[in-house]
Amino acid sequence: MNEEHSALKNHFLKIFRHMKWADISVLNLLEKQNIREEKVVELISHIVISEDTCYKRITNEYYENRFWDILSIEECKRIVEQTSSKYMKYILALPENDFQKKISYKNSKGVDYTTSVEDLLTHVVFHGIYHRGQIMLLMRGSGKDVVATDYAMYMREHE
Q: What's the domain range around 23?
C-alpha cells in the first residue's frame, strides 16, 4: 500500500480488499460444496449485484434496480473480479475532497436519495457483511461447512 495515500483512502482500499476476499471465500465454498439452495444463491447474487450497482451509482453509470436476480456462481465470481478492480481504481484516483461529494440516485423502490461517496462506500461494505452472515447461518443450519469471512480473519491472512 502506498504510504502517500491519506488514512481515509488507505482505509477504503483495505476494506474493499477484504470485501473481495470475503465474496470469493463464500463463492469458493459454495462451489466446493456444490451448494445450489435457492436462498443461499439468491443472497450471494444479491451481494455481488448490489456491489456492482453501488459502483454504478457512484460513477453515474446506467444500472437497473434488479437486486434479487439469481446468478450462477461463475457469473458471481466474474462480477466480483470486475467490480473489485473498478472500485480499487476508483478509490486510488479519488481526490481526497471527493469522499464527501454527494451522489444522487434512486433506491430499489424508486425513492430519490442523496448520499456522500464515503457513506455509499461504507454502506456497500457493511451490506455484504450482513448478507454473508445470513449465508453462513443458513448453511450452518442445514449442516454444511461454513467459512469465516470477518475482517479479523482477513487481516490475519494478509498481514
A: 7-158
Is residue 2 assigned to a domain?
no
CA-closest candidate to residue 151, choices 26, 15, 9: 15
Residues 6+ apart with CB under 8 A from 134: 43
Do the domain assignments include residue 104? yes
Task: Write out the three cell numbers for 26.
Answer: 463464500
- The span from the CA of 158 to the CA of 81, in Å, is 18
Residue 25, Cβ density class (10 Å: 0-12 exposed, 13-18 middle, ≥19 buried): middle
Query: Which residues have CB under 8 Å from 157's CB, separation 6+?
Result: 21
Tell me the per-residue pLDDT of 25-45, one tens digit each, with 9 for 90 and over: 999 999 999 998 889 999 999
- Does 87 map to a domain? yes
Cell digits for 28? 469458493
pTM over 0.90: yes
The mean pLDDT of 81-86, rounded to a whole number, is: 98
CATH number at residue 53: 1.20.120.450
Residues in the chain: 159
Is residue 61 in a domain?
Answer: yes
